[in-house]
Amino acid sequence: MISRNCGRRGAAAPPHGIPERNRTAFWILLIYCPILCLASSRLNSGAGSSTTQCMVTAPPACASLLRLKALIGRHTPRVGENRTSIKGLSLYRRIAQSPCHRAIYEPSISLFAQGEKTVIVGGRDYRGVEGSFLVSSIDLPVQSQVTRASPERPLLSMLLALDTTLLREVIARQETVASARVTDDDVLALGAAPEALIDACARLIGLLDAPAEIPFLAPLIQQEILFRLLQTPQASRLRAVVSAGDHRHRTARAIAWLRQNYAEPLRIEQLASIAHMGVSTLHHHFRAMVAMSPVQYQKHLRLQAAREGMLGGLDATSAAYSVGYKSVSQFNREYARLFGQPPLRDVKALRGA
Q1: Which of 20, 141, 193, 340 is most buried when burial is the number of CB atoms within 10 A of its CB?
Q2: What is the pLDDT of residues 228-283, one digit of tens each?
Q3: Rounded distance between C-alpha atoms, residue 160 and residue 169, angstroms
Q4: Residue 29, C-beta contacts closer than 8 angstroms, at least 6 positions apart
Q5: d(CA 169, CA 148)
Q6: DSSP result, 290-341
Q7: Torsion sign (Cα): 158, 164, 169, 175
Q8: Closest listed residue to residue 299, CA positions, set 327, 274, 325, 275
Q9: Region of 124 on the Ramachandran plot (φ > 0 left; ψ -120 to 50 alpha; else beta)
Q10: How far is CA 34 from CA 11, 25, 187, 220, 320, in A?
Q11: What is the model's pTM?
């Protein structure tokens, strides 16, 4: 244990009883002990990391959260993703921690009922804990990792794709409200879910027990979920992206075009024209939103699509050509650089997992 007196000022002389020959050692310890304490503290707290932690305090368990947890548990017979008969809704069960893996987050809300998951974007760590939600308002390359899960207490979460057309309608029907300013480097929004939002999500999942009601009630509850999101401090990001004329909205148009046309040759001037921006302005706001350039973003989209194609049965050469690569050797190099190993070895490991 480190003494609380370590580094305290005002010690004009060493304590009585220390022999003269040992007093030099005493002064060395007195000077360097605070430095060693600080270094130890920084190492233990991860202060040397280049990432910024974004987290929320888990809210106290409420009846709605307990119901949500039970519903997700009942409707996730398989480990991993469980797609549902409600459009845009997927439920997840994870029973172990996972290594960090890359993915593309589409516009969506993730609500965590149990366990923990970390999502990393542009040097920021967003830690989703029980009772928190994570909103992505654009197509975004991320790294994610399950950090707390076990067979006895699995990670249970839901993901609902955001319908941007419906979001615009909900915003238009609301009274104009002032929202907090969003900084350019806020690429995701993380918050503690209010009970009303958790309750609406639980009622949406509860419709899986009454399939005949889904066509009538699911759209209404999804509309309520958007309304509840717009009452949270994280609403400003959603408002900015769908507000015509805002630079985030214009940048989002470029991102959406790349998402649809990633296999096509990229001309930055054409992309800037789509976004109604100058080339340098587009580069600046694009990097601010997704933490990479348009060319890097297209490369991520291509490689993710090729990976999914190979998992579906394509060989590496066919996958490379299908996503727009002209050189298979370049594809292999860039794939290994992104995913850590060559295509065939990576796909084999994924299938084994």
Answers
A1: 193
A2: 999 998 888 778 667 655 687 788 889 989 999 999 999 999 999 999 999 999 99
A3: 18
A4: none
A5: 37
A6: HSS-HHHHHHHHHHHHHHHHHHTT--HHHHHHHTT-S-HHHHHHHHHHHHSS
A7: positive
A8: 325
A9: beta
A10: 14, 15, 38, 60, 56
A11: 0.74
